[in-house]
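Try it yourself: sequence plus flavin-adenine dinucleotide, in.
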Amino acid sequence: MLVEVGAIVENDILSDDVRSMVIYVPEIAAQAEPGQFVMVKNENGGTFLRRPFGVADVDRNSGRLLLIYRVAGKGTRELAALEPTMEISVEGPLGGGFRFDAESDGKRTLLIGGGVGVAPMIYAARRLAEENPAAKPVFLLGIRSENELFWQDYLQDFTEEIIVTTNDGTAGIKGFAIDALPAVLDKYDIAHIKICGPTIMMEGLAKLAMARGIECQVSLEKRMACGIGVCLGCTFEGRVSGRRWKICHDGPVFPAEEVFEQ
Ligand SMILES: Cc1cc2nc3c(=O)[nH]c(=O)nc-3n(C[C@H](O)[C@H](O)[C@H](O)COP(=O)(O)OP(=O)(O)OC[C@H]3O[C@@H](n4cnc5c(N)ncnc54)[C@H](O)[C@@H]3O)c2cc1C
Ligand code: FES
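Structure, out:
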C-alpha cells in the first residue's frame, strides 16, 4: 500500500452528479488490480478523513488511474471543484479485489453494476476481455435513467453485450437489474457473476445466482474511516465461515454465500 500525491489530469462531468477523475499516480497504477479501491484526500480541503473509491481503470503505460464518482456530500463536492494540474493524495491500492481463478474454466462471466457501483466493473471487464477475448463478459447495467448511459462508452470495447435497465424506463428495460437477470441467464451460458452496487440490489441478484449454482462474488460498500483494517468500522460476520471480516482489508469483494442467505 502506497501514498502518492499526483496531479489531476482530468476531472470531467459525466452527468448531473457523476464525475470522472484521472490522476497521475504511476506507482499505484502499476499495482492496482480490478476490485481494489483507493482512499483519496484533497490535502488543502476541509475533510479530515480520506474518501474511498473503487479503481475504475488504470493505464500502466501512462501511470494514470481512473475514478468515477458521484457527488454525494462534502468530500466529493470538494473533489468536483478540483481542476487539472492540481494535486491530490491517493492511498492504495487497498483491499483484495476480485478473484478470477474460477474463470480459468474459460466459461463466460456476467458482470453486474448498479449506480456508481459500475465504476470498478470497468477494470474487471477489461481484465476478463483481455484474458479471454473469445468469451468477453456480458454486462448488466442497472442505472436510474438515460442520463447515465455514459457508462456504455467505458464498457463497450470489453463486453459481448450490455443489457441496460433504467428505473424510469427512459432507456433499455424499465425496472431493475434483477428484472432482466433471468432472460440474460437463459440467453448466455453464464458460469460466473460479479456484482457491485447497492446492497439491496446485490442481495436479490446474488440469491438468484446462488439458486442456479452460479459462482458469484459481490463487492461491498460501507462507510470507511481508515480503509486499512484498523478502526473496525466496516466489519460484518460471514454467514458460512462465522468469521468477523473487515470489508476494507479482507474485501471489499466476498463470495456471495458469505454475505447473503441462499
Ligand atoms: C470500497 C468503496 C468503494 C467506493 N467506490 C466508489 C466509487 O467508485 N464511486 C463513488 O461515487 N462512490 C464510491 N464509494 C462511496 C464513496 O466513498 C462515498 O460516496 C463518499 O465517501 C462520500 O463522501 P462525501 O464526503 O462526499 O459524502 P459524506 O458527506 O460523507 O456523505 C454524503 C452521503 O453519502 C453517504 N455515504 C458516505 N460514504 C458512503 C459509503 N461508503 N457508501 C455509501 N454511501 C456513503 C452518506 O451516508 C451520506 O448520505 C465507495 C465506497 C467504498 C467503501
Ligand atoms: S475502515 Fe477501518 S477497519 Fe475497515
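One thing you can check immediately is this: The mean pLDDT is 95.
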